[in-house]
Specification:
single chain, 209 residues, mainly beta, Alpha-Beta Plaits, 2 domains, 5-stranded antiparallel β-sheet, 3-stranded antiparallel β-sheet, 4 helices
Length: 209
């Protein structure tokens, strides 16, 4: 058997966590804890303007908090406000309060959810790699994978050189060509064992018979 020893850099993706002002309907808090712990988002009714939505005006109606900023979300055509809750008032308790009955301008109140980007590759063939990320795309069992996507969400790691022992590696493949380790002690194509390790022109590795 031919054994081709090869080195390849590996990488992971960086987890980015972003606070967003509005995300639409979400599951119950117990099922989705990723939100700012002392803030809520006020979503106003379609006919309501945020011009007169101030800290004083909502406190007069018994709403405990401070308006931090206001904006209009064009994609959902809603006026929204970000509210800093009064100390001691939890997000869950704030959500449980019937704020629309206190202020008729309010449609609903939601947590200020955190949005996490997923570090999935842009490889058009990635969906075929069910062992890395399996959501049942090929008719198999969802979540039957090595959790590669979750690992990429945590860290990019550092420059790591991996030795691959196999019958061969296609180092010209588009997915590998730019990631291949190159032997710095060897001059390619001169038919000389420049680094003196017993192998001639072992630029990407060597073959042992």
């Amino acid at each position: 058997m031919n054994l081709h020893l090869n080195h390849q850099r590996t990488g992971m993706f960086v987890l980015l966590t972003l606070a967003i002002a509005f995300t639409g309907s979400r599951p119950a808090l117990a099922d989705d804890p990723a939100y700012v712990p002392d803030e809520v988002i006020i979503i106003l009714k379609d006919t309501a303007s945020s011009d007169n939505l101030t800290t004083s005006s909502i406190r007069e109606k018994g709403i405990r908090g401070k308006i931090i900023n206001k904006t209009r979300l064009a994609h959902v055509q809603k006026n929204v406000a970000r509210l800093k809750l009064t100390a001691g008032l939890s997000v869950k308790d704030a959500i449980d309060e019937n704020w629309s009955s206190k202020d008729p301008r309010i449609l609903r109140v939601e947590p200020n959810y955190l949005l996490f980007t997923r570090a999935l590759p842009n490889d058009p063939g990635f969906s075929q790699q069910w062992a890395l990320y399996n959501y049942g795309q090929t008719g198999g069992t969802a979540n039957c994978h090595i959790n590669a996507a979750q690992a990429w969400d945590i860290t990019t790691g550092s420059e790591v050189i991996v030795a691959v022992i196999d019958t061969g590696v296609d180092y010209t493949h588009p997915d590998l060509a730019g990631q291949m380790w190159i032997n710095p002690g060897e001059i390619p194509g001169n038919d000389i064992d420049d680094d003196g390790n017993g192998y001639v022109d072992d630029i990407y590795g060597f073959v042992r018979f």
